[in-house]
Design a protein that fits this description.
Elements (H helix, E strand, L loop, with lengths): L10 E6 L5 E6 L3 E8 L2 E8 H11 L9
Antiparallel strand pairs: 1-2, 3-4
The chain binds zinc ion (ZN).
Length: 68
């Protein structure tokens, strides 16, 4: 899974217990399904929370889910 706007993907690392035993884990981007105006069309896309916030700041008033 990756963000469809910025292409952010999972990162790998270790989770480390108190006894310093290391097991592999994934760091996933905070992906949300969201309606976004992308390339001139409203689409439901898997985007990360940072892209979602950036988008909401840009044209929140134009969003069909937030018509005021
Ligand atoms: Zn993103």
């Amino acid at each position: 899974m990756k963000c469809e706007i910025c292409g952010k993907r999972e990162g790998k690392g270790n989770s480390v217990s108190h006894s310093q035993v290391k097991t592999k884990r994934l760091f996933r981007p905070n992906l949300q399904k969201s309606m976004v105006l992308y390339k001139g069309e409203w689409q439901k896309m898997n985007i990360c929370s940072k892209c979602r916030r950036a988008h909401a700041r840009g044209d929140e008033s134009k969003s069909p889910e937030h018509t005021r």
